[in-house]
Predict the 3D structure of the following.
Amino acid sequence: MKPETLNFFDKVYDVVRQIPFGKVTSYGAIANYLGAKRSARMVGYAMNGSHGKDIPAHRVVNRKGLLTGKHHFEGTNLMQQLLENEGVVVIENQIQDFASVFWDPSIELQ
DNA sequence: CTCTTGACTGAGG
DNA sequence: GCCTCAGCCAAGA
């Protein structure tokens, strides 16, 4: 389909779907890959409509590896459990060894 | 059209 | 390293 028909949200969803199992990325990294580095907030905003879709939103965290969007998931620690289920160690909403599980679309996806 | 609201980020103290 | 502030920009009222 034509890229012109893809909204910013759709592009975000497309990238998030490509995040490998057991990997995570940041809102800024996605925004940067989409050519809108300044729109990191929009990436997170887009995640609001990710429910009901096949979007692994739990693999998207802020640049610190902090689960800032966990409150948008069911329960209080669903997001953390989803990540731990993929082998990602999370303590107090903070991803441990963040650098080793970080997946940058602008590099990995090229 | 204007104003508010963020699942963000980088810079400055 | 932590806290605060300001810039960012799309969507909804």
